[in-house]
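thought: fold this chain, then report.
action: predict
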Amino acid sequence: MTRRMTVFIGPFSSEPFTQGLRALLGETGEFAVIAVEDVDAAVRAAATDEPVVLVLEGSDPAACRRYLDEPAVRMVVLLDPAAARSFVGVDNARWTELADVVRALAGEARTAPADDERDRIRVVPATGLDRGVDAEGLAALAGWVETSLALALTRRFGESGQGVLGWSVSPREALEMLGVDPARPQADDLAGRLADVDDSLFVSRHALPAAVADVADAYHLTDQDLRLLSLVLAPEIDGRYATAVGVLQDDLTRRRPSLTLLAELLAGAHLSAWNLRRARSLVAAGLIRPVESEAPAVDVGYAPSAAVLAHLLAPSAEDAAARLGAQLRASLAGSEPPLSVAESDLARQLEDAAHRATVVRLVGGDGAKRWFSRLTAWTGVPLVVGDLAGVEPGTRMAAAGDWSVLAHLLGGALLLLGTDTLDETERRRVGDAALPRAGGLVAADGDLGPARSRLVLRAPAVPATERATWWARAAEHAGLPLRPGDAERLAATVALEPATFDDAAALAAQHRGAGTPGSAVELVQRAARDLRPAALPAGVRSVDPVYGWDDIVLGEENRTLLKAIPQHVLHAGRVLEEWGFAARVPYGQGVAALFSGPSGTGKTMAAQIIARDLGVDLLQVDLSKTVSKYIGETEKNLDRVFDAAERTGAVLLFDEADAVFGKRTEIKDAHDRHANVEVAYLLQRLESFRGLTILTTNLKANIDGAFLRRLRFVVDFAVPTAAERARIWHKAFPPAAPLDGLDVAAVASRLPITGGSIQSIALHAAFLAAPGGGPIGLDHVRTATRRELRKTGLLAAEKTLDDWPVPEERTPALVRP
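observation:
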C-alpha cells in the first residue's frame, strides 16, 4: 500500500483559504495535510523518511530554494497570490481543479529523484486557473441550442422551409446555417437528439460548462431556469443563433428571444408565454433583462445581464469586474502586515454578518474605503468595488445590479462608493437593484435607504505603535534604512492604508537610489504624497509649506507654545494610547489650535511652519466656497473637507474661522436655526477628526465658547515690538537683494506695523528700485511705506514719514544677522 504523502500548507494571507485547502486535500485520503505557521521550523522537525510537499503562497522560486536543502522536502508548490483569489468559496468548482493540480504534483514528487532539483519548485500562476468558457467547453451547450432552434424551425415551417417571401434569410437557409439538411424530414430525430443532450446538460449537468455551472450553483437554478438562461445566451454565443431567432420571430431585427419564442422552444415543458411572464426568477435575480420597452410584454426580447456575460467570457475574476467598470479586491499582498486588534474585532463582525444578507454602512477612512477591503480580504471574502460617481446617472441602477450579480457569482461582497453623489430617491433605487441580487454583504459609504443600514462599521483606529512596527517592516523590506524614531514619526504623519506601506517604502527607496535629497522620513512622506489621490473638494487648496522656524519672529513664549503643537501630533500614540490618556480626553483625540490676532502678525505663516515641521501638506479652506445658503449643503461641504484632510494626513487650516465657528445666537427665524445646526455639526466633526486643525481669526471674542473648550492651544499674535520689527525688517529682504542706506532700527522704531505689512513694503520697494537696476534705498522704502499705510488706513502714521531723516552720507548696506 502506498504511504500517504505529507503536505504542509501555508501560511496564506487568507485563513479561510488555508482551512478550505486543508479540508479539500484531506478529504481525498491521499495526503496527511498539516497547516503550518512557521515553515522553516516545520520542515526541520519533519521525519527524514517521510516525503513532504510544501504548498505555499508566493511566486518567487528563488525565495523557496532553501527548503530543498531539507532531506524531507521533495517538492515546493507555490500558489501565486493572484491565483488564490479565484478560490472564493468552498463550493466553488475551481477548488477541485486546484486539488487536481496539487495531487498531480505530489504524484511527481513521489517518483522524482530526491537529488534532482530540476522542476522541484512549481509555480501555479493565475493564468493556470482560468475561469472563462472556451469554444471546447461550450460545445455541448452550443449543440443543444442549435438542436432546439432547428427543431423549432422544422416544426414551424415543415420540410419546405420557405417562410415569408421577401425575407433576406429564409427558414431553409437558417436550417442550413445550423448544420441541418432541410431536404430531409427529421423532426423526430432532432427531438431525440435534443432529449439526450438535455439530460447531460440540465439534469445530470456533467456536460454543463463550469462557468455556467457556477451561475446555476450560486443561484440554485432549476433545470428549467438553466434552459431559459441558455436560450437567452444563444445570440451571444454565435451570430447564427441570433439570425435563427430573428427568423422564428418573423423579424430579423429582433435577434433576442421573447417570452413567446422561449415558450415555443421549450414546448416539451408545456409552458406558455404567460407562465414564463409570471415566473420571473431569472429577471429578479438580475441574470437576464428585457431589452425593449415598447413591445407587448410577451414579445419583449431578453438578453443576459452584463455580469453573466463578464463571468462567462472573462479569463479572470479581475477582468470580469473590469468589464463591468468595477474592481475586484480579493487578497492581501504577501508582505502586508497582520490585522490589528481593532481590525480583528471588525473582521469578526464581518464574518458573522457574511452568513446572512446584510447591509453595512461604512464610516470614516479614505474615500476608497481600503480599510474595509483589507478586512474582507483577510476573511477570505472577495470584494467587488463599484464607484457610482463614475457612472452615468441614467445607468446607475443597472450598474449596481450587475456588480451585485458578479459579487454573488464570486461568493463575495459588494462595496458601493460614491453614494453621496446620489439623491435620496436614486439611493433607494440603487439599493433596490443591488440588495436582492447580492446574496451576501453589501457595503456602502452612505445610506441606501432609511431601513437598510443594519450594521455600521467605523474605520478602525490602528494604534501608533502598530503602525510604527508596520513602517519599520516595510522600510526593511524595501532596503530603506531608518534612524531611531523615524518609524514613529511616519506612523504619526503619513496617513496611508497598510496595503500601501510597502509601495511607499519602495518608492522612497527608488528616490534615494536616484539621488533625491532628503532624509528617509522625508522621502517616504514624498512617496506617500505621490501615491495619494490628488483630487481635493471644492473650496480646498493644498499649500506647499515654504517657511521654517527661522523665518518667523515671535516672542519666546509664543515660539515655545507653537513648537509644542507638532509634538502633540508626533507623540499622540505614546501619551494617549500607551500611557492611557485617551480615556481622559473628553473632546476627541485630534489637536485643535486657535491663532488670533490682527492681520499680518504671522498666523498663516505659523500654520505653514508647523505643517513643514511635520512633513505634511497644508490644506487651506476657502470658506466662500464652503458655506452655502442651502440648508444642509454647508455640512456636506465641510464633511468633504475633513475627509480630505483625513485621507491625506494634512494639517487643516480655516482662515477667518469666525465665519463658521462663530457664536450661536438666539433662534428668531429659520436662518438662525440653520446657522446653529452648522455650528453643532462642526463641534461634532471637530471632535471626530484625529488630525491637526488650525483656526485663525482677527477677533477671538467672536468664536463660540464651545469651540474654545475643545481647543488644545490658543496662541495670541500681537503687533511686534520695535526690536521684533527690526528683526522682521532684516528678514524681509532676501540675501541677494541690493540694499543701500537703510537704517532699519530707525524705521522699525517709528512705524508700529505688522510683519505682513513690512514684507509688503519690502516687496514694493524692490519693484520701485528694479527699473534703475537698484540698489534699494531709503527713498524706495519711504514711498512703498506710504502706499502700504494708505492701503491699511493708517493715515496718522503716514504723516511721520516726512520726519524720516535722510543720512548725509551713505551708510553701509543693511547688516544681516
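thought: worth noting. DSSP finds 35 helices and 19 strands in the chain.
final: C-alpha cells above.
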